[in-house]
Amino acid sequence: MHELKQEEQNKPIAVLSGDVIGSSELSHEAYEELLYTLNTQLTFIRSLHPNNKFEISRGDAFQVLVDDAENAAKYALLIRTSLLSTSSRYDCRISVAIGHDVSIRHTVASSTGDAFTLSGRALDNMSSDALKVTTLSPPFNDCFALLTSYVDHHVSEMTERQSAITYIMLKNQKPITQKEIAQQLGANRVSINRSINTAKLNFITEYTQLFSLKVREFFL
């Protein structure tokens, strides 16, 4: 299939490159559950924009092409919290990159451009981190380096219940009440309120909102 050159050269795209943490240590049943959860979440992200695409390779590695680049951080955190809410043993590393120069081919893996290069390179260099954001804009990178590191640590420390609450908060396009979250999780509102306040879960959604704002300021 011939190469498809992105028409709008000034429109940024984001690439999420990731791999599962500790997949070799999981039982076959757990591994299958993790992959099902991952595939379900990537399919959901693809459904949110007609040009979003994803591929899973080598069983535990994946790459997502995000046309709505301003939502890239939210999508990365949706993936992680969907896994962590299923089991505290499940998690993944995700490298988020934003760029303009991109050649989109018939598969995500065969596509090229600065976002693909930045995302893959950063993932290869990640050791203790599980979330990284990289762009060709030093001011943007400086703005989000410390914030992303803090969010990364914060998410890694969350319980399954806290991850489930955060996932619901991120997934909803409109603000959701604590009562609605409680209904979805079969819990009471008081316990949801306690989890949100104790774990400072609103900080995660505020981070994604700031990310969207700054992507529009810097790249759109």
Offer a concise description of the structure.
The protein is built from 8 helices and 8 strands, in the order ββαββαβββαβααααα. With 220 residues, the chain is an alpha+beta fold.
List the secondary-structure elements in sequence, H or E.
EEHEEHEEEHEHHHHH
Radius of gyration: 17 Å
Individual helix count:
8
User: Got a strand count?
Assistant: 8
Give a structural overview.
With 220 residues, the protein is α+β, with helices and mostly antiparallel strands. It has helices at residues 28-47, 72-86, 114-125, 138-156, 160-171, 178-185, 189-198, 202-219; strands at 4-5, 13-20, 53-57, 61-66, 92-99, 102-104, 112-113, 131-135. Mean pLDDT is 92; it is low at 1-8.
Main features:
220 residues, alpha+beta, five-stranded mixed β-sheet, three-stranded antiparallel β-sheet, 8 helices
Task: Give the topology.
Elements: E1 4-5, E2 13-20, H1 28-47, E3 53-57, E4 61-66, H2 72-86, E5 92-99, E6 102-104, E7 112-113, H3 114-125, E8 131-135, H4 138-156, H5 160-171, H6 178-185, H7 189-198, H8 202-219
Parallel strand pairs: 5-8
Antiparallel strand pairs: 1-6, 2-4, 2-5, 3-4, 6-7
Helix pairs in contact: 1-2, 2-5, 4-8, 6-7
